[in-house]
Design a protein that fits this description.
alpha/beta; six-stranded parallel sheet; six-stranded antiparallel sheet; 10 helices
């Protein structure tokens, strides 16, 4: 079933049939969020109802606390894609501004949850709160539910390898370059997206390793600078690669960039969108004596990346064989 997307409350003309809903910012759509979506989907199927997710655009902290400069794990488009993949029937994206931020929790429950959506089951994370002064926490919702006729289910903290899965924890791990831990918390690889830019054109002509370049800006969640093993998704195919994030100190560049060398690839993709999955941080960025020394290091990085990607592919097929035969 295709997920229906509503970008304003006015677009919903009648309450949903037995709405089972969850609410949150869902930045990154990590494993903790996926527990919420799984519960909502299960409830909706059980009651032959509608699984609904409620989120906000932009992220509320960008409106109420812009000085923080929150770095988002996923773009809006990626978040919508991931929520749809989680089996949700309808997504309500509420435009978040100062006026909406001033709405108290009681009004939100009455106007949005009950009158607009017709919520019968509400699923929330243990630490989620909404409304003016963040009054709308789990205890508040459970009290409202008893008075207004909907059930509230509070999902406890979800842990992976002893780590509580949260968007803030994912941001911390990304900034530290701990991509293997990031993968565990997201349930997938961390991904950069962008349109290939024309760079300095040194990769192929000077170093012998042509690159696809993406621009990064101050609003992006930037991983630790250095070299990463990657998968590059383009044109419906997945290629191995190595990525350097940083300022390229060997050539004294001043602009932050992500430069990816794609294995076994020779297409002209300037101006084309690509997706880059970050699997592992290989090494930090450093200044080399010159192009020859840098090219030699890149060759070693490529060899290490290919070895890791081959091992990961073998592990994947072994997993599939064991699952099929079990």
């Amino acid at each position: 079933m295709t997920m229906k997307i509503y970008t304003s409350l006015d677009q919903i003309t009648a309450p949903f049939a037995h709405a089972c809903a969850t609410i949150g910012n869902f930045d990154g759509v990590h494993m903790g969020h996926q527990q919420l979506f799984n519960t909502v989907s299960d409830l909706a199927r059980r009651h032959r109802g509608t699984g609904v997710a409620i989120t906000f655009e932009p992220h509320p902290l960008q409106v109420v606390r812009p000085e923080i400069g929150i770095k988002l794990i996923s773009t809006y488009e990626q978040k919508v894609e991931l929520i749809a993949m989680a089996g949700i029937d309808a997504l309500l994206v509420i435009p978040f501004d100062r006026e909406f931020a001033s709405m108290d929790a009681e009004q939100f429950v009455d106007d949005v949850l009950i009158n607009t959506l017709g919520v019968r089951e509400l699923v929330v994370g243990y630490d989620y709160a909404f409304g003016k002064g963040r009054r709308g926490d789990a205890d508040f919702l459970e009290t409202c539910g008893k008075k207004r006729g909907f059930t509230v289910r509070v999902i406890p903290a979800f842990k992976v390898d002893g780590m509580v899965v949260s968007s803030s924890k994912v941001r911390e791990l990304v900034a530290a370059g701990r991509m293997e831990d990031v993968t565990k918390l997201l349930g997938r690889y961390y991904q950069l997206r962008g349109v290939v830019q024309v760079g300095k054109k040194r990769g192929g002509s000077i170093l012998g390793f042509p690159t696809a370049n993406l621009s990064l800006n101050e609003h992006d969640l930037c991983p630790r600078h250095g070299v990463y093993v990657t998968q590059v998704v383009y044109g419906g195919k997945c290629y191995g690669g190595v990525l350097n994030i940083g300022y390229n100190p060997t050539f004294a560049d001043s602009k932050l960039a992500a430069e990816t060398h794609i294995f076994d690839f020779n297409q002209d993709i300037y101006g084309q969108p690509i997706k880059i999955n970050l699997l592992k941080h290989l090494r930090g960025e450093r200044k080399f004596a010159g192009p020859e020394e840098l090219a030699a290091q890149i060759a070693r990085d490529v060899a290490a990346a290919k070895e890791m990607l081959a091992a990961a592919e073998e592990e994947f097929w072994l997993y599939c064989a064991e699952k099929y035969n079990s």
